[in-house]
Amino acid sequence: MKPNEHEYKVMGLAPYAKKYEKSGPYEVFNKALRVDGLRFVRDPDMKDLFRYFEERLKFYRFDGIAGGLQDFTEELVTKWVENAVKKTGISDVVLSGGLFLNIKVNKAIAELPSVTSLYVPAGIGDESLAIGASYVLLHSLPGEVDITPLRSAYLGSVATKADIEELLDHPVIKKNYTVKKNAKPEDVARVLAKGEICAIFQGAMVNAFFASGLLQSLIRVFRPRGAPVHQLAFRGQAYRTAPVEFAFGVGLLSKTVRRNRTKWD
Fold this sequence. Notes:
Blueprint: H1 8-13, H2 19-32, E1 33-36, E2 39-42, H3 49-57, H4 62-88, E3 92-94, H5 103-110, E4 117-119, H6 129-140, H7 161-168, H8 171-176, E5 179-180, H9 185-193, E6 197-200, E7 216-219, H10 243-255, E8 263-264
Parallel strand pairs: 3-4, 5-8
Antiparallel strand pairs: 1-2, 6-7
């Protein structure tokens, strides 16, 4: 796994791990880091993070490691939030940062009896720094400034009909795809049933990590007879890019599923 790129696999693989497979890794993480009030305290033996975890996790299955880490993270972060609510008396919680892309962690926090409300913005990483900087500047200006909250994260450009026609006229699209006009949901279902990948491009680009507006790819994940679980770690990757780049990305992903691809518009 690549740091800062494959963290989503932890949440995706965690449900596949049985209790006995994740118990060992859970204990490793539980010893490595703990909460003390609002501080996080790590094991003094942890001098080199890579070597520390390599030595202690090398005998465990990767899905067990993912499951153990997911359980540990939920417990650690909920305890930290509870401590923060207790110390500050503030029960309306706002979270930001890459950790809170983990929706299971967010769910665990939202279900805490001590939490009245939970807000996690759509763009919780670096993509929202410019918006936060603008709010700080407005707040620092003299006089009373009314800062209107954002109603949605769909702040990007919208593709015009001409943009779409230009994309469909691209040589790579013409060579590798068949275009079907006015496709219906039933057409998309047939594509997915064959194991193909279907791209949806609609609406404005979104200021968030998870997708570009309604730009996303759909995959039908199935388990061939006798295939082990670790071969089934598929993910529909969302691209925050221009439409043509997204089409190329879906095309590359499609090659791993089937050589003959269909582009639905």
